[in-house]
Amino acid sequence: MLYNFHYAVCSVLVLFFLTALYFTKKNPPTRRNYAYLFLLICAWSISISSILFCIAFSFPKNFSIKFLHFIAILYLIFAYTIPVLFYFYAKAIALDENKKISTSHKSKLIIVYVIELILIITSCKTGLIYKISPEGIYSVQYGQLIPYVISTTILVCSLIALIKKFKVLPKLKFFTMFSFFVLIGLSDIVEGFYPNIAMTCFALSISLFIIYVNIQKPESFIDNVTECFNQSAFVIIADKEIKENNVFCIGVAIEDISFLSTLLSMKTVNSLLRDIAKELKTCAKNLQLFYLNQGRFCFVGKAIKSNKIEEEIILTSKYIEDITDKIRNIFEEPWKKEQLEFTLFARIVTFLPDDLKNADDVINTIDTLISSNQYRSNYSISSKKIDSRNKLRLFKLDSVIKNSLQQNLFSVYYQPIYSCKKKRITGAEALIRMQDESGNFISPEDFIPVAEKNGCIYRIGEFVFDSVCNFLKIIDPESYGIEKVDVNLSVVQCMQKNMAATLLSIAQSYKTPLKFINFEITETASADYPEVLKQNMFKFDEAGIELSLDDYGSGYANMNYMILLPFRMIKIDKSIIWEAFENPRASLALKATITMIKALDMWVLAEGVETKIQKEWLEENGCDFLQGYYFSKPIPQNEYLEFLEKSISDNPEKYTDVIAYRKEKAENEKNKNDKNPDLKSIKIDEEHELIELVD
C-alpha cells in the first residue's frame, strides 16, 4: 500500500511557522504555556514519525522488520500521547492558573497512560494493537480499540472540564478549544475511510495554530514599551511562585515618570523606560523582571538554598542587598533625554520569603511606598518597615470592593450639567458610589485606585455603563430635556483593546440610542496610553458616541492628543476654575484656554462651579456647559428626575421644547388609544396629570 504523506509534510510546514512564532516571543512560565510547549513538541514528533511511517510502509522491502516495528511503535506512542497532553492543557485553561490538578487525577491518568504504552510497545510480540506481515504489510488489529477508547475517554474528560466552565470562560477561548475536538474528530473519520492518508498530524498542527492565535497570545503578557512581562503576567507568575517556591521580590518604584511627560514627548518617555528596564536587567540577570506600569518594576527570584535555615536567610539577604546596591548605583548618575539632564528617584522595597503572601500584596506595598514622602530617596527598605496602617487600609478596601460587587452595594449618582446656551439643565455626569457594610460611603478617590489594581475596575466600569443604559431605557430622556449622560472611563479600562466592543455590546442589549452617551476620558489616560486609547476612541466615534477630555489641566496630556483624537468637548478641571478666581494671572490663563479650545471647534465645560459669580463669569467668557455644587451635588437617580421635574415646572419658559414634546407625546398616546380601544390605556388620573403639566 502506498501511503500519502503530503498532509504530514504540510503539518511540518505549519509547525515550522508556529515554532518560529512561539520562540521569537517571550512566553511566561505558566502551566498553560508548559502544556502548550509539550503539545507542540509532540506535534513535531507525530508529524515526523508520520512521514517516516508513510515512507517505510510504502516501500517495506527497503527496510528491516525491526525498523518497521520501531517506526510503528514510535508513531502510535506519539499519537496516543496527544490526548493526555491536551487534557493537561484543557485543565490549565479551565482551572485558575494557580490551581493544580489533583494528585488522584494525575495518578489515574498516568496509570492509564502507562498501560497504553505497555500495550503498544509489546504489540510487536503480541500483535494485539497492530501486526506487520513478513512482507512488511501494516495492519490494524481489534486490540487497537483499547488505546482508542482510553484516548477518547481522556478527550471527553477534557471537553467536560471545559463545558463546566462554559459560563465563566470567554466564548472565543471555549470555541477555540472546541475546534480541537472537531478537527481531530474529522481527521479520524477521514483516516477511517482512507487509512493510507496521514491526516491526524495536519489537523493537530492546524488546531495548535488556532489555539496559539486565540488563546496563547504571549503579547498580552508583554509590556510593549519595556519588553518586560507586564502586571497581568506578574499576578499569575508571582502568585504561582510565591505559593510553590521559596522566593523573594524586589520592587523598584521610580518617581516623576508622569511629570516627565510635561517636559518630554511620550516617545521619549517610553524610550527612557526602555533604558531603565535594560539597566535594571543588568543588576540581576538571573531574576525575572516585570513592569507594573507607572514607573513600577519588580524582580522575582528564588531564595538561595542551604541545609540550614539560618544560613539560607543570611545568604538570601546578602544576595538581595547586592542587587539593591546595583539598583541604587544606576540611579546615582543623572539621566539625559532631549538635551535635558535630570535625576530619577528610585524607591526600593525588598520582600523576603516570609514577607510574601501573594502578588497583590507586593503591588499594594510598592504603591504605599511610592505614595509616601517619607521615603523619597534612592535607597531600599524592607517591606516590614513600611507603615502597616496604610497596608491594612489598602487590604480592607480591597475586601470591601469585592464584597460590594458581590452584594450589589454600588450605586450610580447623577450630577446635573447646565447648558449656557439653553440656560437650563441638559444632562448629567454618572458617578459611581460605594457603601461599606455599615452603610457608610467611601470616596471614589480612595476605592478607584485600589479597584484598578485588583482588577475590579472592569466590572465597576461595566456596572456604571449598564446602569446608565438601563436608566435611559426606563425613562424617555427627551421628556426630561436630557441630551447627554456623561460616563467616565478609567485609565485601566482605556488600556484594554476590547473596551469599545464590550461597552457597545452593553448599549446594544438595552437598545440605547448612542446619541445620549458621552464618554469622559481622563487627561492622564490619554497621555499614558495613546495607541490603545486611540483605537477604542475612534470605534466610539464611528458608532456615534461623543467623547470628552476630562480633568483638563490636572494631568500631563500632550496637546497633540487633544488635537488628533476625536474629542468633542474639553472639561476644565475644577482646580483651574478655582485658581482663576483667586489669581488674576490664572484668570487670564483660563480665558486664553477657553478661547483656544473654542478655536479648535470644541465645547468647553467648566467643573467645580460653586457660586453665582463663577457661573456668570464663565458664561460671559465662552463656556458652553457648567457643572458643580452651585447647580446640584451628585444625587441618586430618582432625586435627579425629581430635580428635573421641579426645574421644568419652575422654569417652563426654558423648557418649551420639552413641554411641546410631552404634549405631542400625550396626544399621540391619546390618538393611539382612541384607535385601539382594546389596548390598555393610560390611567385616567395619570393622563389628566400629564395634560395639566403640559398645559
Secondary structure layout plus pairing:
Elements: H1 6-24, H2 31-58, H3 65-94, H4 103-121, H5 123-126, E1 130-132, E2 138-140, H6 145-164, H7 171-193, H8 200-216, H9 231-244, E3 247-254, H10 257-260, H11 266-283, E4 288-291, E5 296-302, H12 309-330, E6 335-337, E7 340-342, E8 346-351, H13 359-370, E9 380-382, H14 388-407, E10 410-419, E11 424-435, E12 441-442, H15 444-454, H16 457-474, E13 484-489, H17 491-494, H18 499-510, E14 517-522, H19 523-528, H20 530-543, E15 546-552, H21 559-564, E16 569-572, H22 574-580, H23 584-599, E17 603-606, H24 612-620, E18 625-626, E19 635-636, H25 637-650, H26 656-675, H27 684-694
Parallel strand pairs: 8-9, 11-13, 13-14, 14-15, 15-16, 16-17, 17-18
Antiparallel strand pairs: 1-2, 3-5, 3-8, 4-5, 6-7, 10-11, 10-18, 10-19, 11-12
Helix pairs in contact: 1-2, 1-8, 2-3, 2-8, 3-4, 3-6, 4-6, 6-7, 7-8, 13-14, 14-15, 16-18, 18-20, 22-23, 26-27
